[in-house]
Amino acid sequence: MNKYKLTIGAFAIIRNEAGEILLCHRNDLMKWNFPGGGMEQGESPWDAVVREVKEETGLDVKVLRLISVYSKTINEDICFDFECEIIGGKLIITDEADKSEYFFVDNLPSNILLRHRVGIEDFIKNEKNVILKKKVKRFNWDESARRTLRLYKKAARERAKKEREKRKKMKRRRKRKK
Which of 16, 61, 142, 168 is a good FRET partner for 82, with 20 to 30 A between their CA atoms? Predict the structure, then answer.
């Protein structure tokens, strides 16, 4: 039986009165993305997005609806995108995001995470049904996309290397026991 660790992310699409979408500038990747992040054990995706938005932006939100579910099998990720509404708080700078700004759809930053660019496109095109995608296929192979792909591949190689090292250690322990 193959064992793998599945990561689950929950992200918010938040619009202001002008229709602009809130994005956060991530300190770790130097990219713009939706506020959100990983789900913690025992937490639902809709609770995770509320917590993550508060942590990253200082805003209190309520979930209006599920927009999409993306399964990124190459990274073993499942991502939920929710439309959220601000009910309190105020934008702040945090350890995770050095900026949070609203952008019109036709003026998104060039270094937005590609999955989130596709998420915005899907949100704009379909406001009634939940979108389910196995993986994001529409890549714009600019330098930003290449860099993001390199980072994902590097992380996958590092995970595989750690798994191999772990198996070797276990094999050595078994030999010592015999």
Answer: 142
